[in-house]
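Quick sanity check, tRNA-modifying protein YgfZ:
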Amino acid sequence: MSTWSTTLHFEHLPVASSDTLPTLSLIDLSDWSLVTLVGDDKKSYLQGQVTCDVVTLDPAHSTFGAHCDAKGKMRTIFRIFNHQQGYALLQRKSIMATQLPELKKYAVFSKVDIEEGQDVLLGLCGENAQTVIDQHFPGSDDVRAFEGGTAVKIDAQRWLIAVAADHADTLATQLANNAQLATTSLWDLYDIKAAFPRIEAATELEFIPQAMNLHAVGGISFKKGCYVGQETVARAKYRGTNKRAMYQLQGASEQCPQAGEVLERSVGENWRKGGTVIAGYQFSDNQAITLVVLPNDLDEGTQFRLAEHPEALWTVQALPYSLDDE
């Protein structure tokens, strides 16, 4: 049972690598959090902190973005959208304790309040998700405000719902009709299949935005003004200094790959550190799928294995987007 619901039971939903995902599932996003920003200076303050263009963000849409340190290494990757007279940044809960104080560091000089949001976060997924969303939150926008919260389109089969705790149980019970209830691991699978980047505590301050394909999913503006880490991000684009990219790999595994684990690559007859796991999902048939940051100049036919499980080889899968997209 969730910590906020007295009636709904969210459990791990076993999925085999060959299975079709449920037509409708409701997910308790317990591993995610919101950062909320309200106040007169919220837009200008955030514009000077993050990689995406907050000034031109249409209230009807959301976008990826990153918050970097001065060297251009990412503290977090988030999805930003308009929420409750301000902005909300959806990001992994594991980095909140270290990233949020850094985002707030200079807020004392601006009219902006930055806090960890208290909303309950739900995911509605599957081919029937859009129909259910339209029934409960009429409209055509990708970001839809409703009493007590906001619904945000993530991709063709997913919506995020951020709802105040006192509305959550009632709304979730309505949305759960004909839906399979699942834990956040199912959302991980959708994210990995979509090759959406994320930062966990284990990968914080390890990579510049392009190393996780943030430019390919619309998370970097190269036309906006200055922000923290901009010099490094711009140099990676215009001088070609970035030597990494994020790839999707699949292989046999008896355990779920964890963020920060090492993936080795074959070099002749030897094995060397090849990359870092960003996110992983283990299927019920002892297959797993993962996102890994690797060198972007790998030779064709390079083999991979997890350092902790060297007996199983992994293969690179085709990304659902082009790394040339900006």
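Posting the structure with no commentary besides this: Residues 25-194 form a domain with the Gyrase A; domain 2 fold (CATH 3.30.1360.120).
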